[in-house]
Amino acid sequence: MKANYDVVVIGGGPGGSSAAALTAAAGHSTLLIERESMPRFHIGESLMPEVYWPLSRLGVIDRMDELGFQKKLSVQFVTNNGKESSPFYFRQHDPRESSSTWQVERSRFDQMLFERAAELGADCYDQTRLLDVEIDDNDCATGVRVRDAQGEEHRISCRVVVDATGLQSFIANKLGLKEINPDLKKAAIWGYWKDARRDDGENEGATIIMQTQNKDSWFWFIPLSNGITSIGCVGNNDYMLKQGLKPEAKYEHELSICPGLQDRLKGAEFQGEIRVAKEFSYTTTRHAGQGWVLIGDAFGFIDPIYSSGVYFALETGVRAADAINEGFAKQDLSGAQLAKWADDFKDGSSWIRKLVHAYYTNEFSFGRFMKAHPQHSGNLTDLLIGRIFHDQAGAIFDDMDAAIEADKRAAMSMREG
Is position 95 within any domain? Predict the structure, then answer.
């Protein structure tokens, strides 16, 4: 580990590794550090189809198949009474190769990206803890302090710091830039099952989103390789964690009131331990300054429901790397330069945020809406794919917003009547 780099990237997840890979490939001395020992466990296993493009930029598409990850060709929804939607097959909307994606074990996936960054020239160190990012009175990042695997502390100067620290969001917390979304304070309880029943054929690897009977929570069903399925429950933080039940008991209770899971778990065997995470949705009020930039979950976090997290991490990592490389060429490492991509990214990702809010509106039915507005099926599939960075990405919401308000009024009338 040298004492000086052009770029220091903090966090060895998809965002950090992609940013480090592309700045190193452009010839800039790059340090990538990860707090945990690689490979390490991480949640966020279901990939949107649009990950194809940043993974292609990184040159790892062939490796995805070589590693034997479960192919994902569709997504499906199950209502609170167990009614299953027809699968949304991505290729029916877009027959290109990018319509096929993957369900991944993040330990292997993240390790592959970490190693790719090293192949392209980054100095990559795991078991290295960030102690501080040094930001002067002029909002300029000048370096970092870290503790390595041997316990030795280092002060490293650099010209750019890329914060890819995930939900820790180190710089945003240091500078007071985080804004929590009060309507999306969620918690997740999940675990892994062996031999849970999957659908046949092309829907075998589908992500399935299942509501519980009372609609106070929902389950993800993510088929992984080797017969293992990730099954997790998400609901409001108070509902999931503050009702006097231990997480194990709460998980069992929510399983018992999820009709879509009953048949799928017959004969299945729970593996390992119950895991818990608080997943508060937030944004950041600024995304870069002189010599620093936020990416991935450090930039902002929406919700796990549509599996956008890994795609957003990769996309912001690639975009930030391009802006950094251009900034070195122009000798401009200002916040405006390093975050020149951020407004476009926020515009696109806002449509996913609106779709999340629609799902959490209990009075609203996606099935009923699509029957009334079949012309929006392609637009909805675009959102589920992650194809959101174009002018018509939000075209569905004029009709959807009106339908949500109508459903709310109808529900209120029924309660009052």
Answer: no
Cα separation of 45 and 41, whole Å?
A: 11
d(CA 52, CA 314): 10
* Average pLDDT of span 215-237: 96
Domain end residue (candidates: 319, 347, 375): 347
Q: Which residues pair with 140 in a beta bridge?
A: 290
Tokens of 202: 């092309």
Q: How many domains does the chain have?
A: 3
Residue 92, pLDDT score: 83
- The greatest distance separating any two alpha carbons of the chain, rounded to the nearest whole angstrom, comes to 72
- CB crowding 351-362: b at 16 or more within 10 Å, else e: bbbbbbbbbbbe
**pLDDT per residue as tens digits for the range 273-305:** 999 998 789 999 999 999 999 999 999 999 999
Core vs surface per residue 16-42: b (16+ CB within 10 A) or e: bbbbbbbbbbbebbbbbbbbbeebbeb
Q: Are residues 114 and 162 in the same domain?
A: yes
